[in-house]
Amino acid sequence: MRMYDLILKKKEGAALSKEEIQWMINAFTTGEIPDYQMSAMLMAICFQGMNHDETLALTLAMRDSGDVLDLSGIKGVKVDKHSTGGVGDKTSLILTPIIAALGVPVAKMSGRGLGHTGGTIDKLECFEGFSTSISEEAFLKQVSEVGVAIAGQTANLAPADKKLYALRDVTATVAEKSLIASSIMSKKLASGSDAIVLDVKTGNGAFMQTVEKAEELARIMVAIGNSAGKKTYAVITDMSQPLGNTVGNIVEVQEAIEALNGKGPKDLMDVVYALGYLMLKAAGVAEDENEARTRMEKVIASGKALDKFADFVEAQGGRKEQVYHPQLLAKAAITETITAPEDGYVEALNAMAIGTACMSLGGGRETKESQIDLTAGIRLKKKIGDSVKKGECLAELYGNDAAKCNDAKELVQNAFLFSKEPLDAPETVLKYIT
Ligand code: URA
């Protein structure tokens, strides 16, 4: 086979065969196909797209380019959850102990934050001593014994995707739905769970800015997961404003702990319960949404979910007292307040702008190598639909560098838009794809 012929074939709009895709991914991973040829192929895919069979073949070839975790030694249906990335999205921290407390094992691989979006691994590292680089053996043992383990992605998980993603990033070929779907699903399938639940975000803080585009991506990923033999469900959720009231690592951990104490804000808890319902359904332990929600509410009210979270933090080397006393987590030196410039109602709260403000406070990475300040963050006091009086607090900013705080202040102030007319808060759970 010659890469030149495959590029020409895709450029002219024909479908590539499974064998051609397998050959291409293998040869690209070993370095036989140079970046310039793969870049041309990626651009051709952006213009011509890929059908289901091509996207599935690409996903499976990338899954098989590295290690595929074997979780069969752990009893029960192992369910994984993945979000396409958002601002203020701390659902994994709340959801995984709830699901584990209900007896469904959770073996999860998570990533770090990049750009304006956060990542679960950074949040977990807010607990002193917490380690996400655990051996495969320790990971499996912990899932069996504690019911939940979360690790960083191993270096050899879908290495073809890593190489391809780096190329997409610099050739303006990230935002194509079959490429996004195969990239996400190759890693999910390599992580070894029996079932997968996807949270596909839509809105200005998300990859897919309209509900229609998010649904298209969700349907492609669900079809791939099911064709690969894993029960896969998705939910489309709103990311037109940050999820919950905090953005930043330590403040999000504190909000997750409040949620596990039964005090989570409605928009956040609606997403947690929607994903939880799909995880319990995928595990075969719940069919009815109301019944699933009642069971989740019960493990929060009884304190079982919080205890499960504390046991999980301790099992991975973290300080358990910080779960029961989140005020023991580190604090930033500077607090700045943003106030309302007029009376009215919050009409918009730009998620991307808030995520960028958090990054400029030091709480996010501009490149994969950036060091982050875990104490930097934003606490939102007002969200869409809330009434405000001139001079009232809209948000608090936390940081350790006065110049960075000043830059972030302006971004946060400009993220709010006001209306004189009252309006409803947006729904966060928009559609199930099951
Ligand atoms: N996340 C991924 O892992 N891959 C993509 O292509 C987009 C988001």
UniProtKB/TrEMBL annotation:
InterPro entries reported for this sequence: Glycosyl_Trfase_fam3 (IPR000312), Glycosyl_Trfase_fam3_N_dom (IPR017459), Glycosyl_Trfase_fam3_N_dom_sf (IPR036320), Nuc_phospho_transferase (IPR035902), PYNP-like_C_sf (IPR036566), PYNP_C (IPR013102), Pyrmidine_PPas_bac/euk (IPR018090), Pyrmidine_PPase_CS (IPR017872)
Keywords for the protein's UniProt record, in alphabetical order: Glycosyltransferase, Transferase
Enzyme class label: transferase
Any one GO molecular function term: pyrimidine-nucleoside phosphorylase activity
Source superkingdom: Bacteria
SUPFAM superfamilies in the cross-refs: Nucleoside phosphorylase/phosphoribosyltransferase catalytic domain, Nucleoside phosphorylase/phosphoribosyltransferase N-terminal domain, Pyrimidine nucleoside phosphorylase C-terminal domain
Catalytic activity: 2'-deoxyuridine + phosphate = 2-deoxy-alpha-D-ribose 1-phosphate + uracil; uridine + phosphate = alpha-D-ribose 1-phosphate + uracil; thymidine + phosphate = 2-deoxy-alpha-D-ribose 1-phosphate + thymine
EC number of this enzyme: 2.4.2.2
Residue ranges constituting the Pyrimidine nucleoside phosphorylase C-terminal domain according to the UniProt record: 345-419
Pfam families recorded: Glycos_trans_3N, Glycos_transf_3, PYNP_C
Signal peptide residue numbers: none
Its job: Catalyzes phosphorolysis of the pyrimidine nucleosides uridine, thymidine and 2'-deoxyuridine with the formation of the corresponding pyrimidine base and ribose-1-phosphate.
Protein family membership: Belongs to the thymidine/pyrimidine-nucleoside phosphorylase family.
UniProt subunit comment: Homodimer.
Protein name stated in the entry: Pyrimidine-nucleoside phosphorylase
